[in-house]
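Milestone M4 deliverable, item 7.
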Amino acid sequence: MTAYAIAHVHSTEFCPDIVEYLERIDETLEAFGGRFIVHASPNKRGVEGDWPGDAIVIEFPSMAEANAWWESPGYREILPLRTAHMVADIILIEGVPAGYRAKDAVKKLA
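Output delivered:
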């Protein structure tokens, strides 16, 4: 089942370390089938609640690949370039199967 790395980016100090991080992150994703599907789009519209900052979403074929990427030596090597200059909340989360409907959540509660 597809999984996602989702970041709610509150602030970024744009500096040489962030540039290097951005130049290197794609190569860390390749081995795990990761791909950006949202990357801090300037075209966004807040429709409910407060959403300061930006959103980043990376898709993976499964939770196993998402976890393996997060723990990989390649990503761990560049991680400090980001964490020293960005404030973000990040989760790895599994998606839902094809055909899932919101009412399926009722079954989980019963």
